[in-house]
Amino acid sequence: MHTERFDIIIIGSGAGGGTLAYALGGTPARILVVERGEPVPQEAENWDPAAVWKHLRYRTDERWLDERGEFTPYTHYCVGGNTKFWGSVLYRLRREDFGEIAHVDGVSPAWPISYETLEPYYARAERLYQVHGRHGDDPTDPPRSTPFPHPPVPHAEGMAAIVDRLRGFGLHPSPLPLGVIDPGVPGGCVLCNTCNSFPCRLHKKSDAEVCCVEPAVARPNVTMWTGATARRLLTDGPGRSVTAVEIERRGEVVRVEASLVVVACGAVNSAALLLRSANGAHPDGLANSSGLVGTRYMAHLATMMQGFHPFEKNETVFQKTVAINDYYLAGPGMPYPLGQIQSQGRTHGVMAQIVVPWIPLWAYEAWVARGVDWLVMTEDLPRPDNRVTVGADGRIRLQYRPNNVQAHRQLVAEAMRVLKRLGAWIVIKHSHKNKNTTHQCGTLCFGTDPRTSVLDTFCRTHDIDNLFVVDASFFPSSAAVNPGLTIAAQALRAADHIIDTHLS
Amino acid sequence: MRRTIRYAAVILGILGLTVAGVAAWVLLNGLPTYPVEPNATRVDVTPARVSRGRDLVTMMCASCHLDSATRTLSGKRMVDAPPEFGVIYAPNITRHAERGIGRWSDGDVLRLLRTGIRPDGRYVPPYMPKLPRAADEDLAAIVAYLRSDDPLVAPTETAPPTSTPGFLTKALARLVWSPLPYPEALLTAPDDSAPLARGRYLANDLLDCYGCHSADFKTVDVLHPERSAGFYQGGNRLRDADGQDVVSANLTPDAQTGIGDWSEDAFVRALTRGQRPDGTTTRYPMLPYAALSDADARAIHAYLRTLAPVTAPRPAVTTVPPLATSTGQQVYRDRGCASCHGDRGNGVYDIRHALAKYTSDESLAAFIRNPGAAVPRITMPVFDGVVADSDMSALVTYLRSLRVAAPPGGTRPAPQE
Description:
Largest interface: A-B, 32 and 35 residues
Oligomer: heterodimer
Number of helices of chain B: 16
Largest sheet of chain A: 6 strands, antiparallel
Distance between the termini of chain B: 92 Å
Shape of chain B: globular
Radius of gyration of chain A: 22 Å
CATH topology of chain A: FAD/NAD(P)-binding domain
CATH topology of the largest domain in chain B: Cytochrome Bc1 Complex, Chain D, domain 2
Order of helices and strands of chain B: HHHEEEHHEHHHEEHHHHHHHHE
Number of helices of chain A: 10
């Protein structure tokens, strides 16, 4: 084993790690970004539903365990991480999400920081990820110090008609905040129907690789190792600081020393890495004096819904421009929040065929050509028994039972009524249920009390002075909007803090 | 010989095809519809009827239709429906015009309650009990209450999803169940002057006691209750709000396995306050009939005493550990709280409302000991003597620790950094 030395090691290059690398790129620190995957090549298969959904060309082949056995998680190990496959819906959490909210099935706890604390970083993250949107249509929009950096992506003709009808129902549809680069401009985003769950062949979707990692590694002080997996973190004797990271790279194990280590592997893998790094000073896993590492795992309750009309062909190509947040803070006639309804990218026949494989593809294609696709999401609540653990062999085990099911059912019922009013003859529903690992968060919750949280409010571990975690692990509650922008904003905030405290 | 085999094969084949055809027909057509007989009955809403109706609805309708999130009869999932029946939701029956029954005529409500036919002709399977023999005046009271301005029936926009009945439900609705006949003559109820007849009316014709307390829902005869198999012998398997099995009790006056050794007062207490002579509470779905008058409760007892005692072997009952044990969570589970409130405290009714109302631990404990003192007609058992005094503070602490204590819908601003 040979040893190398950098000032800062960032493990992971997704929404958290990628953003942080960009933000620290301008400092004199020598930075190493460790990414276990490789860059996703720009190739024809990027936009091929069969390659993406049937042959799982970009998906990890890692198998995790759950209560019933093994499963392949919906996760991708590549430069940019899961942001390469996200839908680029880049929401700020609602102001209310930072407070405590009573839900039908329990309580969504308050965050240790307020919306106002994160607001300036949201504004920076929106500029960095080129978010297109408009303030004011959505009744839950939080206050902003600056307008959106770009105007909203216009609705396609069919969606504009739907938006008008939704307004007629008394709802408040709003443009989805989207991170795309120069939409509709020659040389920019072409507003295709292979956006969410597909990598952008043109590199015109705002993902962490395009917006952050590429400009960061162009700087002389930032190095990136791809195909390099962090196996464990090593600490000094008393366990107050991390001294080095053991990295497996091209069949060789390298020990890399650094004065600061940032873990950004995603909520599941970050917790797993801390647990795997248990040593004499930290017998239950690094930074785990609270016993909370890996617990409170959350993932949104999500159901895909498709309103089908046999005689109305859906001509829309870029469909994901509409959000309905009328039920975000309270359902109709009830004091509890239900969640969010948003239009999503067009379903491809191949994607639908995954669910019931024996129906021929042409039938699916005929079907999805007449459907309008929506996604409804409900907040998941933190529970200590929903958790990530690692086996003796280091394998990830995800123990998870969905919460807040009653609120989600109610939201699906409301969405069903809306789609029926829009004229759908049949509404198809599909949910990944407990296999859903997208929007994973909460496993290393942040807070002010070391007994009830793992990270401090700047995402530094309470137990170890030079260890930070910047991904969705820190979320004390999951809210019900897409988490990407919040991860990026908090990474920018952590970066400022690192510059102030460790680099000056 | 070969010819016989061939005939047998042909007949079997035809049979098989018929079965498959019937199955496909059932699957495709779902629940049947029936012609809707016009019903022009109009119910005058009088204070007396509304008051009687409130009593009946809290006892007969609320346990399924009361949504603890809205605190109205806006409906919810029937967690105790057997899974093979499908996913069943009790619908919104508030006065809301679109989501509830605000647009139904009085006759529409009466027709459904009597026969099981909705105004659109669709048949409602027996998970919704019907009242083919209840007195017209009692039904009028229910209708009057549903039309009243009581908060429980205030128009509520929330409505659960539509039920998706399973194949079994559809098949039974096609092949076995059918709408009940609408009574041709006016039905009246015996009054207090004839306690036996009144008790029999209440138990068999109005409150449907025999439905759960006979041997099996499958062999219950809704038109002729006495013909139900194992009439009042209990043994019917039900489920509580926490998913645990509950076996209905033998209500015949057998001394060993029935209620033969219960005094009248003990019976009344069990029926109206939910506390049995052995110091345990009744469990969901047997909620206390707190709105029942003392005379009516005694009348039911008098009627049950006339039944032939039947020794029905008692199925294994969950053994309750001795009093004064243990952690609040154990008390919550063992003493029957979870049976209604589920493992999170928001099952049949959301305990958050009580936690917010009774802010001191003493007042909450007093409420648990005797809920009826604070809230008349409440369908919660009396826990005085069921939860030992020494266990009460652990229970109260556990209830508060369920972290559902915040006022519903309320948001607290996040603390500043």
